[in-house]
Amino acid sequence: MKKLNVNFNEVTDTTGYLFSFAKCLSAALHHSQHAGYADDIVASSGFAFRMWIAPDLCPSATSIWEFKKQKCWLENGGLTCAYIERLWGEESLEEECRLAAIEIIKQSIDRGVAAVAWDISGCEWGAIIGYDENEEVLFTLKINGKEDRIPYRKLGKLDLPILSVLAVTGENGKPQETILTDTKKLAVSHLYGEEWCDNVQGLAAYDALIDFIRNKYTNDFSWNLEYYLGTYTALKWYAWTYFEKYGEINLANLYKTVYASWKAAFDIKNTCDISDQSVRDQLISLLIAAFTAETKALTEMEC
């Protein structure tokens, strides 16, 4: 049996809703020989700049994208990784992909790095922190911080039966200056909504969310709104601190405004009666302020 000591204690999550893939990846890196990448990777992989909004504020919209892009996005941030997936319509590959994924996971654990896998936390990402070859079980860390275990045979066959496993294998030596330049390019692509997604994305997500708050919100959507505000607030923090760390003062100041606006909106949602139109107007004003600042950031990153 091999099991790593991994937790979320060193991962900054300012709302408790940091996107599960980013949170698990950061935790895996914090507790490995690649700890220097643990905070940067949330921004340099592009996750800090991505937004998706479903018409009904379904939380699952945040987890719908071309999963295999994870590999190149992490490599953008200076890491190398192994990745395997098995999606809908690929049932004939189930056993082959599952066995390959388990091998990737075991090799990663042996290197001292937790793997990140889909559906470990109930239709959310989670970390795989160990394995027992004799019992054929994987030890997991759910997004709520609780540990669990799953049989080898259940990998990729849980609540939403698709397989997606990523493991960091090393560092590619990419210079930090190049990482920064390429991160801006990736951010621009995300803000323009250029990745595949079934939902409204990028800067257009602001209008979709504002329209929902203004015209469609009822208390039935209270938690959905909290989830969206909490997810993107926590991600924006990483955009702000990434640019601050590498001396991009203008971008850092813009994203500080973006983050502060989202955080204020999140706090209002948790402390005020959102059924009151005047409170919803405050949320809308804050989101407009964030949109204005992030649009300016997009223009600067295009230069």
Radius of gyration from the alpha-carbon trace, in angstroms:
19 Å
Counted by DSSP, the helix tally is: 9
Helix content: 40-55%
Low-pLDDT sequence parts = none
First CA to last CA: what distance? 52 Å
Description:
There is one protein chain. This protein has 303 residues and is an alpha+beta fold. The chain is 47% helix and 14% strand. It is built from nine helices and nine strands. The strands form two sheets. Strands 1, 3, 4, 5, 6, 7 and 8 form a seven-stranded antiparallel sheet that branches. α6 (204-215) runs antiparallel to α9 and α7 (222-245) runs antiparallel to α8 (249-271).
Brief descriptors of the model:
two-stranded antiparallel ribbon; alpha+beta; single chain; 7-stranded antiparallel sheet; 303 residues
Note the topology.
Elements: E1 2-3, H1 20-30, H2 40-44, E2 52-53, H3 69-76, E3 79-86, H4 94-111, E4 115-117, E5 126-132, E6 137-141, E7 147-151, E8 163-171, H5 176-191, E9 200-201, H6 204-215, H7 222-245, H8 249-271, H9 277-302
Antiparallel strand pairs: 1-5, 2-9, 3-8, 4-5, 4-8, 5-6, 6-7
Helix pairs in contact: 6-9, 7-8, 8-9
Structure at a glance:
The chain is α+β, with helices and mostly antiparallel strands and about 300 residues long. It contains nine helices and nine strands.
